[in-house]
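Morning!

This is the sequence you dropped in the shared folder:
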Amino acid sequence: MQQFTTDSVQQRSRFDYWSELVSRQFAALDFTRSECGVFFGSLATHQLGLHHLLLVKSTSQRITRTLRSDAGANANFYALNYLVDGHARVTQNDNCYAIGAGDFFLFDLTAAGALELTGEFNMLTLSLPRPLVDRYMAQAQRLCAIPVSTHQSGPACVSIDMLQSLARNCPHMTAADAQPLIEGLVRVIAAALGSLSPSAVSPATANSIVLTRIRNYILSHLDEEDLSPCRIAAAHGMSERCLAKLFEPEETTVSRWIWAQRLDEAHRNPEIASPNSTPRDTVATVDLVPGRLHPRNRFQESAFETLWLGRKYQPELLAQLLQEFAPPTKLAPAKRSVEEACAPIRCRLAGCVTPHYRLTR
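The structure's back. C-alpha cells below.
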C-alpha cells in the first residue's frame, strides 16, 4: 500500500500538491477550499486489479467532477465512498443530500457532481467497474449521491464491515483473491440500496430502488425452475403489469432479463455442470457453423451452455432465440426443424454423450 502526505511539502504548496496527487492517483477532479487555515492531507492507496482502494484523511475542501475529456483512468467507474468521520454534502444527478459519519454513497465518475467536506474527515473509497455495478443495480446513476446509513440498515452494516475488512487485508491479497469478494460486496450494497424507502426520494430514484430490489430477488433465485413474472410480482406486492412497466426503461421484459442473466451466469461459471458430466462432455464439443448466427449475442456459446447445464428449457425457447437473435440474412436455409436441432441438447440433459453435432438449422 502506497502512502502519501502533505507533510512532505511546504505549507503554502500543500493544497496544490494534494489536488494533483488525488487526481493522479484516482480520477480527474477539481479541488477548491474556502478556508485559509493550515491544510493537511494523507492518502493511502492500493490497487487490486481493476479496483482502486483509497483511505483519505484531510480537512475542509470541495471536490468537483466536471464533464471533460481528461477523464482519467477510472472514468468508467463508480466510486463507493464511506465517510468514517466528518460531515459532507454530495450532489449528483439531481440528488443532493447531507452525509454524516457512518454513511456511504455511490458517486458516478462519468457524470458531473460535487462533494463538499466540512472540517476534518476520514473517508474510505473503492472504485467499482461500471459493468459490475450495473449487473446488480438498476439505473445505478439514479442511486448516486443517495446516503445509506449504517446506523439503520442491516445490509448497510454488512457492506461496510466487508469494505473495512477488505481495506485491512488488501496488502495480503492478489487481484484474483479480491475479485469474488468485491463482487459479493457490490451485491450486498445493492441489497442495502434496495432496502431504502422509495417514498423518501424522487420518483425516478424510487423506481431504481424498487427495480434493484427485484433484480436481486431474481439473481438470488436464478436456478429455480418456477421463477416467473407472476411469482416475482407476488413476492413484491405488485401486479404483473406494474412489474412489466418497471422493466420498460431497461428496454426488455422480465422474462428476457431472467433469460439473459441465466445465460450470463452459465457463461461466467462454466464449471457449474451436471454431476454426470465429464471434462470432455462440454458445450465446447457442440460444433456450430461460423457466421450462421448474430455474433454480438454470443448465442453459440451461451444458449447451448445454459441448456446443457440442466435448466430444462423447452425447445420453443431455442426457437425463439433463433428467430429473434439471428437475422434471416445471417442464416443458412433451414435443413431441419427446431425439434430436430434440439435433439442433441435433450440427449445431453438426459445424461447421454452424443458425437459432435453441426447445427445449420
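Headline: Residues 221-267 form one domain.

More detail when I'm at my desk.
O.
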